[in-house]
Amino acid sequence: MSRFKKYIVSWLLYFGIVCLAFLIGTFVPNPITENQIIKRIELKIKSELFSLNFFEPEFNSNTELEFITSVIKCVDFLNFKIESSQRIPSELILAQTILESDYGKSRFSVEGNNILGIRTFNKEDPQMKSKANPNAKWGLRIFKTKCDCIHYYIRLLNNHKAYSEFRELRIKQHKLGEINAIELAKTLTNYATDEKYIEKLIEKIIEMQETKHSNSLGIRG
Predict the structure, then answer these.
(1) Which residues contact 103 (CB under 8 A, 6 or more apart)?
(2) Which residue of 31, 107, 110, 213 has the fewest C-beta atoms within 10 A of its own C-beta?
(3) 97 and 169, same domain (yes or no)
């Protein structure tokens, strides 16, 4: 065999080995290679998600504007992960958080991350007692984060029998493509014991609309 033919055979053999290694590595990767690929993909995904603010946003309430912005970011974050028909309007949640926590300044908000006045009658739940009623059978539930509190609130409205009227109206509004936070607020009579709660809630929503918070801060339903 001539030197030229030997060179061709050697080159073809080398090329065949490289191709075989590539195919094996592609379809049957070894554990080390596979883990490296997974890590690279995970880092890429995390990088993209961070750029989209997909992870639970930090909650700041040093000022009223920071509180409002934090609530909206949290609601957007939570609503992104559920069906549109299950979402709670940002206007409604924001109005309630302001009423219940005074822009995050209340004791229950500061010490227990409870910005929605959520009560619990379960003694096993972490909770805080009201100073005005320390012997009550209920307490204000303690949450890990303020965004976690909003998450609980969304699940509450989506599942508790006390808010079936809310869900029925939301279905009708969703089908029409017109979500009205004020009309939805009228169905939350079971949310608080204050007889004027709905009136206060609607006034707060209107106030936000009139001061153009919904436009300047990008509030979405």
Answers:
(1) 61, 64, 67, 68
(2) 31
(3) yes
